[in-house]
Write a structure and sequence with these properties.
mainly alpha, about 80% helix, Growth Hormone, Chain: A, about 250 residues, Major facilitator superfamily (MFS) profile domain-containing protein, MFS_dom, single chain, cell membrane
Length: about 250
């Protein structure tokens, strides 16, 4: 770990440098993947309008449901990796050392790296919607236990809360989401419809999460309000997942 001065000077660049390896890996995987029958059929030359227009016209319900599903993914993620750090290191609340809290987030994130493919594999066995919905409901319930652990002021219990919440339960949503959303749209409009749904869900769920969490803490004076906010978002995503239907072709 770096000191505050080292982080501001050069440490912040390290994750971006490391991402070069992930980009290279993604390119290799893409080159080795064989396109599905649906995509090969969709790639045949045809005169078409904008796929975005077709997606909005033909699949508005599916796009909104995909956005609702993605809402909890981003909401809980940004609470875990940004708001928790600010909350736990605030001298007026817990006053934990920043490097210890960041280490806890790093540990949970590293474990999630391995939990994600496991969650995807599990969704192959028992179904995307089942794994996603169960993950959302469990994470919603865990939100209350998580904040109780954080409020003890113990870095060990905070780490435990992050490992269960971010590494394990969040993975049950994030792991199968790619396949879940892809199967909800036809190959002809899949990229456009997915992008619309995910971007809307990202903005509504993630962009405002730290600010809303701060407002709830200020208004209610208790982390229980934040837990309820997370649980509500998870309940919405679980409901949208149950309503999302698979499409073929």
């Amino acid at each position: 770990m770096t000191t505050e001065e080292q982080f501001r000077s050069w440490g912040w660049r390290l994750p971006f440098v490391a991402s070069i390896l992930l980009i290279a890996l993604a390119v290799v995987i893409q080159l080795l993947l064989e396109e599905t029958v649906e995509f090969r059929a969709a790639a045949r030359p045809q005169r078409r309008r904008s796929p975005v227009v077709d997606a909005v016209r033909d699949h508005p319900r599916q796009i909104l449901l995909a956005a609702g599903c993605y809402l909890a993914i981003n909401l809980t993620y940004y609470v875990f990796i940004t708001f928790v750090v600010a909350y736990a290191t605030n001298d007026a609340i817990l006053g934990l050392p920043k490097h210890e809290v960041l280490t806890a987030v790093l540990i949970a994130s590293a474990i999630e790296l391995f939990a994600l493919p496991a969650a995807g594999w599990l969704s192959d066995l028992v179904g995307r919607r089942t794994v996603f919905a169960v993950g959302a409901l469990l994470l919603g319930a865990w939100s209350f236990a998580f904040w109780a652990l954080v409020d003890t002021g113990s870095i060990g219990l905070l780490t435990l809360g992050l490992v269960v919440g971010l590494s394990l339960l969040h993975s049950l949503m994030y792991g199968p989401q790619g396949a879940l959303f892809s199967e909800a749209f036809s190959a002809r409009v899949r990229y456009s419809a997915l992008s619309l749904g995910i971007q809307v869900g990202s903005v509504v769920g993630g962009a405002f999460a730290p600010f809303l969490a701060t407002a709830l803490l200020s208004g209610f004076g208790s982390s229980t309000a934040i837990a309820a906010y997370m649980a509500l978002g998870c309940a919405v995503s679980a409901g949208c997942t149950a309503a999302l239907r698979r499409r073929v072709g």
